[in-house]
Amino acid sequence: MGRLRVMVLSTLVLVLFHVFVDAGQNLKKTYIIHMDKSNMPADFDDHTQWYDSSLKSVSKSANIFYTYNSVIHGYSTQLTADEAKSLEQQPGILSVHEEVRYELHTTRSPSFMGLGGRESMSFFPQSEARSEVIIGVLDTGVYPESKSFDDTGLGPVPKSWKGTCQISEYFAASSCNRKLIGARFFSQGYEAALGAIDETTESKSPRDHEGHGTHTATTAAGSVVNGANLFGYAAGTARGMASHARVAAYKVCWAEGCFSSDILAGMDQAVIDGVNVLSLSLGGTISDYYKDVVAIGAFTAASKGIFVSCSAGNGGPSSGTLSNVAPWITTVGAGTMDREFPAYISIGNGKKLNGVSLYHGKVLSPLMPLVYAGNASQASNGNLCTSGSLIPEKVAGKIVVCDRGMNARAQKGLVVKDAGGIGMILANTDTYGEELVADAHFIPTAAVGQTAGNLIKQYIASNSNPTATFAFGGTKLGVQPSPVVAAFSSRGPNPITPDILKPDLIAPGVNILAAWTDKVGPTGLQKDTRFVGYNIISGTSMSCPHVSGLAALLKAAHPEWSPAAIRSALMTTSYSTYKNGKTIDDVATGMSSTPFDYGAGHVNPTAAVNPGLVYDLTVDDYINFLCALDYSTSMIKVIAKRDISCDENKEYRVADLNYPSFAIPLETAWGEYANSSAPTVTRYTRTLTNVGNPATYKASVSSETQEVKILVDPQTLTFSRKNEKKTYTVTFTASSKPSGTTIFARLEWSDGQHVVASPIAFSWT
């Protein structure tokens, strides 16, 4: 996959890997072994002896990498396929899963979300309460020298903290402080797969050599830093969402990926250490929950009161591209802010076009020669400006138009530079539409949308001596409309459980400024030797820690709230329309977005702290959900770590999971029923918990069509005390529609002060 730091917008890909060949020419792979701890034979004094004995029964040479004691019971090791199959047959083994590789999904945002001033922060508790919350970040590590980890004004480390700072040659004891209270690294799965880490380029320590982990950690909880900027762009005060919260960094991602045995070890340790929030900006599997290590680890975390926030993925705008969709995970998509970094392009026929750029350096003289890369290359994909594809004689001294795709955006500029070009226009194709992502390019560069790119290419094709130039406009604030859904943000419907609407919500994820490491330049390319303290990058990797930080604020304000209550507060107070009533736009289509794009909407933190009502969930609710999926006892035990027998006499329905949103998958009538007029009737039951003052709430429903009837019963709920619960039923009556049809609606409960909103998505297949 190349260097992860330049792949924050890459499509999710699942990679199975072979690691080495033993003497018998049998390929060995890493496996995660889930053990049924309750069935340990009496012959053993402790479970580690049992684990070792079970492993030695199938392989005398295999060693245990990690022993897992919290999120699962078991261990990881390397085995041949035959050894793994043999081990799976042993008593006490719940499952044997082959390891997979995950990829990273990679500050104006506080003020954009209404957290900019003293008045807005008055909604939240003072720093003393906020500083008791600990956010665990599983990523590429941390750059502890960043000013964003300054602990000035913070009190002692919370007494609940049980973690440590893992010291190494590259990570001194002084690296941790009262802000960065813990740092660990996990590399055994990675090294088993790809060999020993090359410590000339990446240290075996919690130190961040990629930048991604430092960026996400400081987005969630970075301290206040005045004068932060990237080459003068986005200058201002940088601060994380929960700037007084503590940070614990768990390095589970390395230069070539994040491996599931390491991720599981990091989650296992974070739970033991005592974090309150877990933030994971990574993904890589679209599989059943009992096979997904993030889902398994998150279940235990949620059952212990830990809020888990994960990125939705960067597979958009294609539908059904989400990862991290378990209902006990808060799944976060990406939107834009009201800030841009404009570049202004002028072409020789007098037309002026707009783009974006973070270029910092010497600008071009007016109207330089212009060439399209596809006309200056002998390679089949020469239009993409891949390495060595350009003919120097055709691009020397010219601005080169390169199409976006395949290789990193900034890397294309290096290809142009190496061939003698003096500037680049990076043009979107139909894959990216009008989405504009700014980069710190090496040569004068402007990125343009598909429409502008096509106009420029048409001009080149119709002119014998095409010319162009561009200027850079710095930082522009107040851009409207904002937010819009980012084109790269992964979309629903939920590929695992269509009855659960995902993503849950969106948060800022485009052109986000946060702290960076000194081990790599802002583009993440090896040739980039520029040191920056802060960097601007994009991805759902950036939106996830926004929600992690906001969850920390809500946890401090309401320590009694469960992770489900916190998610409900964030979801039901999110907004899906602009102030003029128009639905949030989708940059990929230029039209209105839908709940499959934004979930409940864009997060609104000052409203979330006082939501009025919440949809709460317990571990038992999630277990009933697993029973509704017809999971076997052993499958459920892999996730829940205890014996669960679903009641054969009870009807379990996914529709009854007390989720803050509604997704109703429907079947298209076909065959002899194709012309049937009989509607489909489904009923969903929900329970609301009052977290505010006594009040009476009334229900209202808005829908795109009258063809789907929605009935709420009762239509009024009166709460006389705090924490009182009330149940209601929604009946959906829908006629058959052609396959692929989607219809959306919105259910709101309001007492005149609070609006508790839930999106509704109908889809026919």
Helical coverage, percent range: 10-25%
CATH homologous superfamily of the largest domain?
Peptidase S8/S53 domain
CATH architecture of the largest domain: 3-Layer(aba) Sandwich
Helix/strand-derived class? Answer: alpha/beta
- Count of DSSP strands: 40
Count of all domains: 5
Mean residue pLDDT: 90
Rg, Å, rounded: 26 Å
Shape: globular
Largest sheet: 7 strands, parallel
If you had to describe this structure to a student in words, what would you say it looks like?
This protein is an alpha/beta fold and 765 residues long. The chain has five domains: 18-98, Peptidase S8 propeptide/proteinase inhibitor I9 (Alpha-Beta Plaits), CATH 3.30.70.80; 103-338 and 483-608, Rossmann fold, CATH 3.40.50; 342-467, Glucose Oxidase, domain 1, CATH 3.50.30; 624-652, no CATH class; 658-764, Immunoglobulin-like (Sandwich). Helices cover 20% and strands 27% of the residues. It is built from 18 helices and 40 strands. The strands form ten sheets. A seven-stranded parallel β-sheet has the order 8-11-7-14-16-17-27, sandwiched between helices. Strands 20-19-25-21-22-23-24 form a seven-stranded mixed β-sheet, sandwiched between helices. α7 runs parallel beside α13 (540-557) and α8 runs parallel beside α9 (293-303). The chain is globular. The two termini are 34 Å apart. Mean pLDDT is 90; it is low at 1-25 and 117-121.
